[in-house]
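User: structure tokens for Hydrogenase expression protein, please.
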Amino acid sequence: MWTSLEPTATTVEPGSTASVRLRVRNTGDTVEEYRLQVVGAAAGWARVQPDVLRLYPGAEGTAQVEFAPPRTSDAQAGPTPFGVRVQPRETPHTVDVAEGQVTVGPFAELRTELLPLVVRGRLRAKASVAVDNLGNQQLTASFSGRENGDELEVESEPGSVQVAPGRAAFADLSIKPGSVSWVGGTVKHPFTVSVLRAGVPEPVELRGTYVQPSFIPRWAMAVLSVLFALALAFAVMWFNHKPAMSTQAKEKAGEQRELPQSDGMKKAPSPSPSASEEKEEPKEPANEAKPPESGGGGGGGGPKEPKPKGPKLRTIRSAEGSGWYLETKRGAKADGTYVGQNPELTDEFGKNQKWILHHYPETDTYSLEAANAPGAVMDLKVGTNIVQIFHAPPENIKSGRLPDNQKWKLESQPDGLTHIVAVGNGECLVDMQNDTSAVTWKCDDRKSMGWTISDWPE
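Assistant: Done. Predicted tokens:
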């Protein structure tokens, strides 16, 4: 028996096929049947057609060895040796194995997951990132956290992992808040973890939420308020109540004595009223109407205040909690100033809580101009979900020739609130209940994404 592979080496990509030819010659003097079978690491995704050859003495036959590696980690990248076993039926002890090599091309596929998506803790919280290597070659992934300003600190341990084909690796995340919340209920902080695979410029971003409850919950504050009110009421009642004082002392009989009266003592004359006192002084009539101090003819009163000119100024208030107002931080006017939130409506920094809406009917979009910084509109910071203000030419604000990160959609909701949707990323403006910066997040029905715009819609 004589065997040969043509060629002895070949290359194939995962998900495709390649083949080599097997030649078998009967060098015996009897008719023989040869059974053909692929052996080795490639046997799971290779086959021989036909798998049986019947040859007369001196005759030669051929069969095709076909390789079809799947696009999974089962077919690892690189050279893989294989063999084709040729076993005669009549003389099985003379089995032969034709050896060759097939090289499988590489492919990469990565799946990442943040576990869990929502973490909770007063001082810190733990999470983990799972990395599954669905490709057929080893890969390296590194991790980095992106926080919302100084609100959170996200660290991973380890900072990078190497994952074999078909295996998974995990990295632990430590999430710490920038400050402790003592009173005020629960604060939600969004955060992002980037997973960067070696050789790929764009990372995969995983988004989660850190829920930070206060040390003193709201119900405890309510109980303390009730107890304080009761204590105050008790103190008021205690000091206002005057108990009746009585005595049981009695005079002894026969002990009363009159003071001695002498003839030389004269009674003091009773004072007689003077002439001036006898005259009754006239009383001023009560609630006497006084003439107005300022001049001017009657009827119309003072001059009417002129109506304000220019665009209408509006406030934008969240439906979350006590309703925080959207503002430019501390009244700053420079490009890059964060748009924050304030629980109080105040004029401490001027018109930094007032906004001008510019409507563009052709696209049904709006730009939101800060009243304290004319020409500066609400802007989605490039590459982030942070909201800031940025100046734009006045003619562009008027005509609507603005980039998508400076345009917003105002979508009315069934509950009467409004979603402010960024055209740039399709996410909704969310109230974080802090004065650091407003951000955008994937739209849903949570209250922190509902806003009330004064005098809108008109």
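User: Anything notable?

Assistant: Residues 218-240 form the longest helix (23 residues).
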